[in-house]
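Q: Convert this sequence to structure tokens.
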Amino acid sequence: MPVCRSPKTAEEFEQYYQLRWQVLRKPWGQPLGSERDSLEQESFHRMIIDEHGKVLAVGRLEKTDQFSGKIRFMAVCKSVQGQGLGKQIIAALEQQAQKLGITDIRLKARENALTFYQQLSYTSKGFSHLLFDEIKHFSMSKKLSHHESHQQVSASALQSVWHQTIPLSKAMNIQISYYDGEQLNSHCDGSFNKNLHNTMFAGSIYTLATLTGWGWVYLQLKQLQLEGDIVLAKANIEYHAPIKGIGYAIVCADSVKGDFNRLNEGRNARINITAHLYNGDNIAATFTGSYAVLAGKAKSNDKAQ
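A:
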């Protein structure tokens, strides 16, 4: 049964790019390699692969700013065109965009694909350009709402706490893009948080990770109707690669260890969290933090420390 996911191995990426070239470049005499650009590492790649490991369809999402994104390089193997694989790729990319906080998504559609995108609620903005002096492209866009699993009320409450009690979080424009009770995603303004190398500043990466970990604990306390002061007791971060695009952080329940029930007994709790910072689909930094939740501080957990 074909599945839709991101490429994982070098071999899968080669197949992924090969299909791009075969469908989008080879028929117009373009050389192998012309199907790639400088944004591959900071983008989000999705493919549909069959049970034999053959790549059948591909597509890419890139973040153009904190709240906008672009879909590019959509391609479906000729032998399986018309079977709905393109719609599956678009759906996967849109779901990823929602979790990244993208509210405005755009693309450049070839003339023969206009109807396909219009059926998926994309609106044509008119002629864009000619590719290879013969292929007409049209600008299209679509507004995205929050992911259906996103708990907007809880996320907004946490974001308000951040911006009201930590001026730096507001200056960085740290935003929550997704929270479903188990996973918390956050991101910040890419342009504000750049260093002299035009990559994300290490201090901003650390701040985003620290607050995402703190925020996950805060939201769990609210969900469990518990109270306590949350303080960061110990932390470490490993920087694996530069973040060239719009960085984002994720904390998932399966990367958390600790016992909140101690608070019911009037005892402090220790929650150990791993947060990952990403550049596109790739982990760029790993943060480990040990947060102490101090019992007996009624209603004081609404202040980040």
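The chain has two domains: 3-143, 152-302.
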